[in-house]
Each structure stands twice: as C-alpha cells, then as structure tokens.
Amino acid sequence: MVVIMRFNKTASNGVIISDDVIASIAMSAAKEVEGFGSFSPRIPDMLTQVLPKAISPSRKSVKVYNADGDLTIQLYINVKDGSDVSKVSADIMSAVKDSVQNMTDKAVSKVNVCVQGIDFCEPNELNRNS
C-alpha cells in the first residue's frame, strides 16, 4: 500500500494525512475481516457508471468525513453468502477504527457500514464444494 502524505508548513506536527489515505487504510482493514465479500459503489456513484468517467474504488466505496478533526468513515460493502451480517459489520467497524487510529494517530468518532448486497458463490465454486 502506498501512503501519500502532504506536508503543511504551518501545522505544529508538520503532517496532514489526506482523506484518500484514510480511505485506503479503511479498505485494507475491511478486506481482512472474515465474511467480507467486496466493496460496493455508493448509490449516487452507480449513476456515474453510465458516464465514461473513471472513479477510484476508494471514492466509490469509502467516504471519509473530516470535520474539525472529527473523523467519520462510511463503507459500502457486500458480505459473503452465509455470513452473519451483524457480526461482519461490527467486526469491520472495529477493524477500520483500530487500523485508522493506529496508523494515523487520528481519533475516529464513527464508522458506518452500509451493506448493499450479498456476494454469492460462482457456479464453479458450488460444484467444487459439493
């Protein structure tokens, strides 16, 4: 993972971490949770898929709200078929909060997980499992 930091000459600690970096950390943490299926685009971004405009995965699936140092992270995901949606969501919330706070030293006040759907097994995977 590439971490990009911009330096701010006026800040006392000298470092500002961009929202894209925070989104990347959140995505990485969510992928490690058992039962996570895939990222899902936000509903408004689904409309932009019709247009020939490239949107990065972090912009589609993770939104970071940073108001006066109060970080809120919203993730749009699909869970794997057969997973406990509540447990997966809670585990993602915890993993994302811990990862972002540990890697950035910024307090995360809230992590919202929006489950958009379920990832079902491919037909070939079903044959292998039976």
Q: Quickly count the domains.
A: 1
CATH class: Alpha Beta
Q: Could you spell the SSE succession in H and E letters?
A: EEHEHHEEHEH
Q: Which blocks of ≥5 consecutive residues have pLDDT under 50?
A: 1-12
Q: Return the CATH architecture.
A: 2-Layer Sandwich
Residues in helix, %: 25-40%
Number of helices: 5
Major beta-sheet overview: 4 strands, mixed
Describe this structure in words.
It is built from five helices and six strands. It starts with a strand and ends with a helix. It has 130 residues and is α+β, with helices and mostly antiparallel strands. The protein has one domain (5-129): Alpha-Beta Plaits. It has helices at 19-31, 43-48, 57-61, 85-104, 123-129, and strands at residues 5-7, 15-17, 36-39, 62-67, 70-80, 108-119. A hairpin with a 2-residue loop joins strand 4 (62-67) and strand 5 (70-80). Strands 3, 4, 5 and 6 form a four-stranded mixed β-sheet that branches. Residues 1-12 have low confidence and may be disordered. 22% of the residues are buried.
Summarize the topology:
Blueprint: E1 5-7, E2 15-17, H1 19-31, E3 36-39, H2 43-48, H3 57-61, E4 62-67, E5 70-80, H4 85-104, E6 108-119, H5 123-129
Parallel strand pairs: 5-6
Antiparallel strand pairs: 1-2, 3-5, 4-5
